[in-house]
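Researcher: Structure for this, please.
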Amino acid sequence: MHMSSIRPLHDRLIVQRSDPETRTASGIVIPDSAGEKPEQGVVLAVGPGKRDEQGQRIAPDVKAGDRVLFGKYGGQTVKLDGKEVLVLREDEVLGVIDN
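Model: Predicted structure, token format:
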């Protein structure tokens, strides 16, 4: 499945996890198997938003390109273009990281 062939629905987001830090501050290299999956990533695609009780669309607060923070066990992992990405609901995003 190619990234261009998936369009998130409602309030869902497609997020690419950030690469994990492979070295500690003191210079110790952490193997991939020992490191935890990062809890932040970059939004690749955003759905149009969910609807309120009157049927009006509620625009999402995040946009493609935003760096977001999410819960450790949030979302569903899927493979796109041979890479793992995360499908999250907007309410699973804890915040947007400003640069």
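Researcher: Any notable elements?
Model: The CA atoms of residues 47 and 73 lie 21 Å apart. The mean pLDDT is 83.
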